[in-house]
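On clarity, I found the account of how folds are encoded harder to follow than it need be. Since the whole study asks how a given chain folds, the encoding of that fold should be made plain. For illustration, here is how one protein appears when written out as sequence plus structure tokens:

:::
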Amino acid sequence: MNSTHQNAGTPSLEARLAARLAGALTTGSQQLPHDITERLRFGREQALQRAVQARKQSARGSVVAGVTAGGAGLLAGFAPWWQRAASVLPLVVLVGGMLMIERWDVREQVLAAAEIDAQLLGDSLPPAAYSDPGFAEYLRNTPLP
């Protein structure tokens, strides 16, 4: 069976099961002796006090762990400054790397242009000869040694 179909009916099944359990507990609690009902009432009051304290504690910024319906873990609260800084660190490293690559590329282009200039200036031909249209035709027709 497809998991989508299984997950679609899960909330309604859980609601029906919860309603049946609540009904059975309510019916059963009416038949309990007085001392047991008092102990149950005391236990409910303690559970409510603990829930209120847990809510107050989570409102103060403490970390509360939970799980979403899809199974992903959640952490709530404020992270220390070094964790926030560490989360930005990969972006800083990426931008720094890109800047270094760009500088290296520009440097390589400058070195290549300087090498070509050095060869032109060190050659026996004057630089004006390279702009002559007849020289370009000579280069096209002359075989390389």
